[in-house]
């Protein structure tokens, strides 16, 4: 059941959406001009392409047509440069999933070690502080040169951008575990492995999931830019290809799909955070 406040918030969101679409429609509305000949229309179209314009910003109706067209058959495959939005999103999500999983495998154990060892933290902190601010896309030329494969290079970039938030949050969460609990475990002579899984991990889980949530958001942002660079398939390549075709309604449709998928991923990790916090 929805709460009264949640229902009001939903109605307000719909009102804002309708106002936005209405303002968009008014801004893109054009009055009909005098009739033109076929030769004039063809010349105008040629001039528009030559100047890199597609006849103005598309109206909501044109974008709605793109939604209907692509969502009615999301998994069609008509060749390398003409695939459905479902296939494009699946390729992007697969790259993000693999890179993110590799980052989890590296960041969480290393974060545990850093959080439990002040000496290791002091030794590795300078390297973390130097590497963390580097833009993930700055690694793309080195990855393409070293790995010789655009697909693996894209996954590597996702791995790099996902690594640091998880690593830092895991180390912070482990270091912030109450000393009383660790002392009790030490008094009971609990083995280090059992202490890590039964004492430290449950206490640090909310902070670790916060790092994972941030990493997933960054990874979904970066994959779009990475796919624009490497091409092939993926939602980023779809956006770039449609822009090259001057199909702005399709570009806006793809941007909306990127936002919806990003919201779904964020809500997924948000639900995991609430579950872990509730279990505590």
Description:
With 280 residues, the protein is mainly alpha-helical. Helix content is 79%, strand content 0%. The chain has a domain at 89-232: MetI-like fold, CATH 1.10.3720.10. Mean pLDDT is 84; it is low at 31-38 and 43-54.
What descriptive keywords fit this protein?
single chain; 280 residues; mainly alpha; MetI-like fold; 11 helices; 79% helix; globular
Short summary of the structure?
The protein contains 11 helices and no strands. By secondary structure, it is mainly alpha-helical.
Architecture blueprint of SSEs:
Elements: H1 4-28, H2 38-50, H3 60-72, H4 85-116, H5 118-131, H6 140-147, H7 150-175, H8 179-187, H9 192-230, H10 235-244, H11 248-279
Helix pairs in contact: 3-11, 4-5, 4-7, 4-9, 4-10, 6-7, 7-9, 9-10, 9-11, 10-11
């Amino acid at each position: 059941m929805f709460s009264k406040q949640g229902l009001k918030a939903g109605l307000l969101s719909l009102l804002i959406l309708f106002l936005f679409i209405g303002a968009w429609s008014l801004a893109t509305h054009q009055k009909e001009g005098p009739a033109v000949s076929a030769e004039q229309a063809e010349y105008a179209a040629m001039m528009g392409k030559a100047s890199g314009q597609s006849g103005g910003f598309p109206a909501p109706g044109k974008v709605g047509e793109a939604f209907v067209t692509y969502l009615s058959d999301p998994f069609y495959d008509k060749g390398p440069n003409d695939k459905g939005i479902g296939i494009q999103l699946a390729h992007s999500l697969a790259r993000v999933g693999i890179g993110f999983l590799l980052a989890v495998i590296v960041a969480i154990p290393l974060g545990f070690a850093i959080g439990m060892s002040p000496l290791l933290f002091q030794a590795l902190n300078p390297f973390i502080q130097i590497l963390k601010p580097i833009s993930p896309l700055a690694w793309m030329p080195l990855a393409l040169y070293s790995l010789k494969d655009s697909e693996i290079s894209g996954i590597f970039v996702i791995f790099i951008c996902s690594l640091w938030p998880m690593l830092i949050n895991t180390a912070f969460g482990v270091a912030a575990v109450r000393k009383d609990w660790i002392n009790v475990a030490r008094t009971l002579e609990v083995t280090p492995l059992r202490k890590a899984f039964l004492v430290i991990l449950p206490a640090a889980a909310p902070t670790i999931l916060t790092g994972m949530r941030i990493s997933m958001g960054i990874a979904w942002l970066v994959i779009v830019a990475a796919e624009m660079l490497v091409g092939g398939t993926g939602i980023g390549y779809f956006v770039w290809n449609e822009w090259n075709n001057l199909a702005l309604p399709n570009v806006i449709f793809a941007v909306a799909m990127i936002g919806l998928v990003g919201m779904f991923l964020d809500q997924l990790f948000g639900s995991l955070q609430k579950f872990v916090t509730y279990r505590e």
